[in-house]
């Protein structure tokens, strides 16, 4: 067909569709339990019948108008369907209630606005479905006009077939689904690789096409009918048919070929086609359509159609205004409404989007659209129902026609181009800011109000200032980036550390009606060939601007190919934000450190620049100590300390904590009894369902606390869990019969089943997504001691996200507390010794969870000497390729298995892995010997970028690194005394070894300190919540304690102690010290204050006090330790008099100098242990002096006296 003969309404197609939440819940009962139902596959299929329409607006306006147009277009096209405006849904539901179709209540659930349908007419689901098939609802006269329009573009042979088809239809309206002369480029995915790019760019058509959703199955009916006729250029026609066939088949179209010679089979094929269409639509829907036409009152019929169609009109008209603004700089559009649709409430709500956007960004008044009565006065004619009017080409001469059109059901419009991100005004009033953001919060995400901390994060992000958001679990971190992303042009990169977390975030966006997201990751469920095709198609779609959110792992930034792709992504579209989720993974101070996060800030700013637009960084985490926050700022290149946003409180009152100490023999029975009690409890779930919950452990294969063992144990003892409990772990268990790819498939399915409550209970390792968002998790059980208070709260915090009461249990074994205390004390036992101790008595770890955790820690920290050997081996290899001149650069490939080839001794003693090698690379990166590195997974090599520096550069860089974490005195302890003229190659090795020393003295000790704090908290179960909150939350003592860490000032220590009055003061001060002690486990002031506060709970604090005096003696000899002891003793006598002798005994054990012995002897209770020990030290000291005197020359002795 010639281009001029193609109906004009096919040539400029776009898509947009909103829906009411209430209609989706009625249409799809399965979605009624979801907090947000817009991910419903039923709703997605039905709206795609009505989402396509013509829209042809050309031109480019000024920057302000282009920005407004781009943002409004994103709002209009964020999902199919996305939620309509709140006021429109209220309006439509009130009308439906008045028409007797339904009754509803508007409620707030877990901070979300929800419309609950409490009753409706019996066949309302089918009536709503039928309303999407508007072809079935139009009048007889309109049907005749449309059929004549169809025939006007057919050849004689095509018309003959259509007449036979029409004759086979039980209702002529069904024939309207057989569209003549449909353009091929409206029948394929825009990003699909095809063989016929030229055909798609041309105006090639098929003779007939049917595209109808199957209402009973999750699929579409797609059939092309080709009538093969003789042609002048028969060879060319045949070639095009073959090409089209390949293209269409790849997009799941079924091709029917009918020839003139075989007209005898046309009638049979026509009947088959009619039956296929009727089967797809469904008998119930066809009957419902007839019921709407013939039986409903005019009010009910109009109300029903409004309920389905007006939200679609809202999205389409909003997109019209967006395109008009972008092209013409104004929203003053005159719209003619010949079908008499109820558009006034629609335009009123669209005006809200436009007005609040103008207010938020301080934009000029773009005016607003108006309805006009006469077509001759209109800029645009808007049609939503099927009509013959668009088939009349002459009508396009004077007006823009916005009419129903056709699009492939997987089609997506590209993001609008030629628009740059914009800041909100710096002087915007808080009320204006809050009102505007609240409008978008409610209308885009259906939330009632912002939670604590969200507004502050969003405000900084909209000013395009980098922000680090530290919010507790379930505080709504993700919504912060989701909202600001929709209020800016372009697309957003979201960096997340776990595959499960990416899928979870994508699912959550989908449920909220934001369907324009994708994940770039390894899809374990497909073949390598399919993996490559999927990746290429995904990259192509991103370049074309088909997605708003792109989820990637940090490892992607290390892949050379992806770095090149990023440059392509930003050629046409800006990236306003790069979101670093679970940002604590940036820091080695955290348990979840990922080296791949390093250099992320630098790479984003260099690789993601669109013109002069550089992405603003939004870093989000639910758990971070001060050192971790410092690392986040440094590694992401955020220079502003005010970028950190924290809440006033981390307390979640809906979580009930219960700590249970058991013996190693009792653990299993206690776990069973807790779970049995939870199953029997019916105060928070339907009597037909089990409560949803997570059972955490750190092991997979362990015979006492492994995921496999615990799952099997619970299945054996609680038969009601059959089919309701599974295990989840990052790595497959030993008995898993399948490949790694099979395990990835299984994990994905498990996660989805858990979120849908098909599998309500999971026994899992901590790899089950840091931020998995399932609102109705009712319990968590830690089957063993968590590694830290932070980690515990993050995992327990996955419960109760809906705000309802939930229970968090900790079961722990502490049968040998003395050993746990010893192994968790880095001052007494270096990490290397732990393995030796436990190898001698391997059953010890079964008797203490804390001991078991220290053994696991040994796998991450191989020992100072081993790590130094690894760094040396790597540097020996790299330095052979080092440039001669300072400032020159080079690249060196290092195989993933490099360490296994270096030395047999290393391989045998430390089971070196790729991760060990990457840590060594990071050490060299930290001291400046390495500038950057990439990972080529195909070649299995690290690509190391080196730049030769000077020895002074190394010194300055290492000093700067240390000063972020330590006092000046501590920094000097680690700085080597090298001269600038020292050999550079050797100097690198010296600094790298010093880096290893620092890591072990601070980071490794911090990990053990964190477990110690967790152990101390659970040992006092009645005070567990109090201690947990004191640890997590900032108080009036946080800043003073932070100041203490910056220097060694004895007077400052005791001034802080004196401020902590009463038990409440001690608890808050202890909490502040605990956080900082994990980062600075050797700070004597922190240890002293912590020990003092802990005396409130008995003599638990004596260990820390002893550690303080040991460090003072060894590292700070100039400090008067006796003066410190006197000041401490004075305060202990006043507040904890019963602990005086124990305190003196502890001090003496760690500092047995004669001066300290004299003090203890004078202050101790006579004949107490402290008194006797002090006397013993003094006597021993006198004996040593007398012995020396006896050895002197007799003539010299008198002079001594």
Written overview of the protein:
Keywords: ATP-binding, DNA-binding, Helicase, Hydrolase, Isomerase, Nucleotide-binding. Belongs to the helicase family. RecQ subfamily. Pfam families: DEAD, Helicase_C. This is DNA 3'-5' helicase. With 1201 residues, the protein is an alpha/beta fold. Helix content is 48%, strand content 13%. The protein has seven domains: 3-118 and 310-402, no CATH class; 134-294, no CATH class; 430-645, P-loop containing nucleotide triphosphate hydrolases (Rossmann fold, 3-Layer(aba) Sandwich); 655-813, Rossmann fold (3-Layer(aba) Sandwich); 815-860, no CATH class; 862-1000, no CATH class; 1034-1190, no CATH class. It is built from 46 helices and 30 strands. A seven-stranded parallel sheet has the order 17-18-16-19-20-15-21, with helices on both faces. Strand 19 (577-581), helix 20 (600-607) and strand 20 (616-621) form a beta-alpha-beta unit. Helix 7 crosses helix 10 and helix 42 packs antiparallel against helix 43.
Into how many domains do the coordinates divide?
A: 7
Highest CATH level, the class of the largest domain? Alpha Beta
- The neighbouring-strand order within the major sheet is 17-18-16-19-20-15-21
Sheet-strand content, in percent, reads 5-15%
Task: Describe the main β-sheet briefly.
Answer: 7 strands, parallel
Supply Rg. 36 Å
What name does CATH use for the topology of the largest domain?
Answer: Rossmann fold
* Relevant CATH superfamily of the largest domain: P-loop containing nucleotide triphosphate hydrolases
End-to-end C-alpha gap:
124 Å
**Uncertain parts:** 193-199, 907-911
Decide which structural class fits the backbone.
Answer: alpha/beta
Helix content: 40-55%
Mean pLDDT: 89
How many H/I helical runs? 46
Tell me what the CATH architecture of the largest domain is: 3-Layer(aba) Sandwich
Number of strands: 30
What is the approximate shape? elongated
GO cellular component, one term: cytoplasm
Family: Belongs to the helicase family. RecQ subfamily.
Keywords: ATP-binding, DNA-binding, Helicase, Hydrolase, Isomerase, Nucleotide-binding
Organism: Pseudothermotoga hypogea
């Amino acid at each position: 067909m010639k281009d001029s003969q193609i109906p004009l309404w096919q040539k400029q197609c776009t898509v947009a569709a909103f829906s009411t939440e209430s209609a989706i819940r009625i249409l799809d009962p399965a979605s009624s339990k979801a907090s947000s139902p817009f991910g419903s596959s039923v709703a997605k299929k039905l709206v795609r019948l009505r989402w396509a329409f013509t829209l042809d607006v050309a031109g480019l306006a000024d920057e302000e108008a282009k920005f407004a147009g781009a943002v409004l277009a994103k709002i209009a096209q964020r999902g199919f369907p996305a939620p309509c405006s709140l006021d429109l849904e209220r309006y439509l539901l009130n009308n439906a209630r008045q028409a007797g179709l339904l009754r509803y209540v508007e409620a707030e659930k877990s901070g979300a606005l929800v419309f609950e349908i409490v009753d409706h007419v019996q066949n309302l689901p089918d009536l709503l479905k039928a309303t999407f098939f508007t072809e079935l609802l139009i009048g007889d006269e309109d049907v005749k006009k449309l059929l004549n329009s169809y025939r006007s573009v057919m050849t004689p042979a095509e018309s003959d077939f259509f007449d036979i088809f029409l004759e086979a239809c039980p209702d002529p309206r069904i024939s309207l689904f057989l569209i003549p002369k449909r353009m091929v480029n409206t029948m394929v995915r825009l990003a699909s690789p095809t063989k016929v790019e030229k055909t798609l760019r041309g105006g090639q058509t098929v003779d007939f096409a049917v595209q109808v959703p199957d209402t009973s199955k999750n699929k579409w009916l797609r059939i092309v009918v080709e009538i093969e006729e003789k042609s002048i250029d028969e060879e060319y026609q045949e070639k095009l048919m073959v090409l089209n066939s390949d293209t269409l088949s790849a997009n799941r179209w079924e091709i029917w070929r009918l020839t003139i010679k075989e007209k005898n089979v046309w009638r049979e094929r026509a009947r088959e086609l009619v039956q296929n269409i009727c089967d797809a639509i469904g008998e119930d829907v066809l009957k419902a359509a007839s019921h709407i036409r013939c039986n409903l009152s005019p009010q009910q019929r109009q109300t029903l159609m409004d309920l389905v169609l007006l939200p679609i009109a809202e999205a389409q008209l909003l997109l019209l205004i967006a395109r008009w603004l972008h092209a013409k700089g104004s929203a003053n559009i005159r719209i003619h409404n010949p079908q008499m649709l109820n558009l006034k409430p629609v335009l009123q709500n669209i005006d809200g989007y436009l007005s609040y956007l103008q207010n938020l960004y301080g934009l000029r008044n773009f005016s607003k659209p108006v309805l006009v009565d006469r077509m001759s006065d209109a800029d645009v004619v808007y049609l939503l129902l099927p009509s013959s009017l668009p088939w009349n080409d002459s009508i396009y001469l004077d007006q823009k026609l916005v009419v129903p059109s056709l699009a492939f059901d997987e089609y997506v419009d590209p993001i609008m181009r030629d628009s740059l991100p914009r800041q909100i005004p710096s002087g915007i009033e808080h009320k204006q800011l809050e009102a505007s953001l609240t409008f978008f919060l409610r209308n885009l995400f259906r939330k009632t109000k912002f939670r604590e901390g969200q507004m502050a994060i969003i405000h900084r992000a909209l000013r395009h200032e980098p922000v680090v958001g530290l919010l507790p679990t379930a505080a709504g971190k993700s919504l912060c980036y989701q909202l600001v992303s929709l209020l800016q042009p372009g697309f957003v990169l979201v960096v997340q550390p776990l595959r499960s977390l990416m899928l979870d975030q994508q699912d959550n966006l989908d449920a909220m009606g934001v369907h324009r997201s994708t994940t770039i990751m390894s899809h374990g469920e497909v073949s390598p060939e399919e993996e490559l095709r999927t990746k290429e198609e995904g990259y192509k779609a991103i370049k074309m601007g088909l997605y708003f959110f792109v989820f990637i792992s940090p490892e992607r930034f290390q892949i050379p190919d992806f770095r090149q792709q990023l440059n392509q992504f930003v050629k046409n579209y800006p990236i306003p934000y790069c979101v670093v989720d679970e940002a604590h993974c940036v820091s080695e101070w955290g348990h979840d450190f990922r080296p791949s996060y390093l250099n992320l800030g630098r790479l984003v700013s260099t690789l993601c620049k669109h013109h002069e637009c550089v992405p603003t960084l939004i870093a989000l985490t639910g758990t971070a100590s001060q050192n971790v926050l410092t690392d986040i700022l440094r590694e992401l290149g955020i220079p502003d300390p005010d970028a950190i946003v924290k809440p006033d409180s981390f307390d979640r009152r809906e979580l009930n904590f219960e700590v249970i100490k058991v013996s190693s023999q009792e653990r299993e029975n206690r776990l069973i009894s807790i779970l049995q009690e939870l199953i029997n409890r019916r105060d928070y779930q339907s009597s037909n369902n089990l409560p949803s919950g997570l059972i955490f452990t750190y092991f997979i294969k362990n015979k006492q606390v492994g995921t496999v063992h615990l799952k099997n144990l619970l299945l054996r003892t609680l038969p009601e869990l059959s089919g309701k409990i599974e295990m989840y772990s990052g790595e497959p268990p030993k008995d898993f019969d399948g490949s790694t790819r099979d395990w990835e498939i299984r994990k994905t399915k498990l996660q989805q089943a858990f979120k849908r409550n098909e599998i309500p209970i999971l026994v899992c390792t901590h790899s089950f997504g840091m931020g998995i968002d399932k609102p109705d998790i009712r319990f968590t059980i830690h089957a063993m001691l968590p590694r830290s208070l932070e980690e515990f709260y993050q995992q327990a915090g996955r419960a109760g996200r809906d705000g309802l009461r939930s229970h968090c249990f900790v079961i722990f074994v502490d049968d040998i507390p003395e050993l746990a205390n010893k192994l968790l004390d880095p001052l007494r036992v270096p990490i290397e010794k732990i393995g030796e101790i436990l190898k001698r008595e391997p059953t010890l770890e079964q008797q203490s969870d804390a001991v078991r955790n220290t053994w696991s820690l040994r796998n991450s920290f191989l020992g100072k000497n081993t790590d130094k050997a690894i760094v040396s081996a790597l540097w020996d290899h790299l330095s052979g390729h080092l440039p001669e001149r300072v400032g020159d650069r080079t690249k060196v490939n290092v195989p993933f298995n490099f360490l296994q080839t270096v030395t047999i001794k290393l391989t045998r003693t430390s089971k070196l892995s790729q991760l060990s090698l990457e840590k060594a690379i990071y050490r060299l990166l930290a001291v400046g010997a390495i500038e950057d590195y990439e990972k080529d997974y195909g070649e299995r090599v690290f690509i190391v970028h080196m730049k030769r520096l000077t020895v002074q550069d190394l010194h300055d860089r290492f000093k700067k690194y240390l000063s972020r974490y330590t006092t000046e005195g501590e920094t000097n302890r680690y700085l080597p005394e090298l001269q600038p003229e020292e050999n550079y190659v050797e100097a690198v090795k010296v600094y790298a070894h010093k880096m290893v020393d620092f890591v072990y003295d601070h980071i490794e000790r911090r990990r053990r300190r964190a477990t110690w704090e967790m152990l101390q908290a659970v040992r006092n179960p009645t005070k567990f919540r109090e201690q947990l909150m004191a640890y997590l939350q900032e108080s009036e003592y946080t800043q003073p304690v932070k100041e203490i860490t910056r220097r060694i000032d004895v007077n400052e220590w005791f001034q802080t102690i004196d401020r902590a009055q009463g038990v409440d003061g001690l608890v808050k001060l202890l909490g502040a010290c605990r956080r900082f002690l994990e980062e600075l486990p050797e700070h004597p002031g922190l240890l002293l204050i912590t020990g003092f506060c802990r005396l409130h709970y008995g003599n638990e604090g004596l260990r820390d006090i002893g550690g303080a005096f040991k460090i003072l003696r060894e590292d700070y000899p100039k400090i008067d330790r006796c003066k410190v002891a006197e000041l401490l003793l004075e305060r202990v006598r006043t507040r904890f008099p019963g602990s005086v002798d124990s305190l003196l005994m502890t001090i003496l054990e760690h500092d047995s100098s004669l001066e300290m012995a004299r003090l203890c002897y004078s202050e101790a209770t006579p004949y107490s242990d402290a008194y006797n020990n002090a006397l013993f030290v003094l006597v021993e000291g006198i004996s040593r002096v007398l012995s020396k005197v006896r050895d002197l020359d007799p003539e010299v002795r008198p002079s001594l006296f």
